[in-house]
Amino acid sequence: MADAATGQQGADRTLVVMRHARAATGGVHDRDRELTSAGVRDAQQAGSWLATNGVVPDLVLCSQATRTRQTAAAVRDGLLAADASVPPVVARDEIYHGGIDELMQVLAQTPATGGSRDVGTVMLIGHEPTMSALSAYLCGQGVSFPPAGMTVLTTRAPWPALGASTARLRHHRTP
Question: In this model, does residue 5 exceed pLDDT 60?
Answer without folding.
Answer: no
